[in-house]
Amino acid sequence: MQSCARCGFVVYPAEKINCIDQNWHKACFHCDVCKMVLTPNNFVSHKKRPYCSVHNPRNNTFTSVYETPININAKKQSKASSEVRGHPEQNHSSSMHAIQHVSVL
User: Fold this and answer.
1) What is the mean pLDDT of residues 51-78?
2) pLDDT for 63
3) Is the distance from CB of 77 to CB of 54 less than 8 angstroms?
4) Where would I find the H helices in 8-104?
5) Cα angle value 100/103/105 (rounded, 5°)
6) Which among 1, 52, 84, 100 could bridge 31 via Cys, Cβ 3.0 to 4.6 Å?
7) pLDDT at 103
């Protein structure tokens, strides 16, 4: 019996995929990054490991958790709200500075 390249357990013919010169369970043949289950028609091989086309290391376009649209939007909102919070303090200090100038004159 042949063993799975990912989990090491026996691969029976009904559940076997032979790709990248190795045997895999159908469920074990998934992208190393996002875990999307792959088929012999939609995988990319890099250093004998399977990847989906999005996480192909040759493209150097790994999608990190930090770069998801939700997190990018949250970062923008956080930055915008901190700038809004910063303006009243700046306006307050500039008005205090103006008052000091007026009182000196």
Assistant:
1) 72
2) 54
3) no
4) 69-104
5) 110
6) 52
7) 47
Strand, coil or helix: 37: strand
Which residue, among 35, 28, 26, 29, has the nearest Cα to 55 in the 3D structure?
Answer: 35
Contacts of 9 (CB under 8 A, 6+ apart): 3, 25
Amino acid at 14: A
Q: State the pLDDT at residue 38.
A: 95
Tokens of 104: 């000196």
Task: Count the Cβ atoms, other than its own, within 10 Å of residue 17.
Answer: 21
- Is the pLDDT confidence value at 73 over 90? no
In words, the CATH class of domain 2-59 is mainly beta
* 61/83 Cα distance (integer angstroms): 31
Q: How many residues does the chain have?
A: 105
Chain centroid to CA 82: 25
Say what the pTM is: 0.55
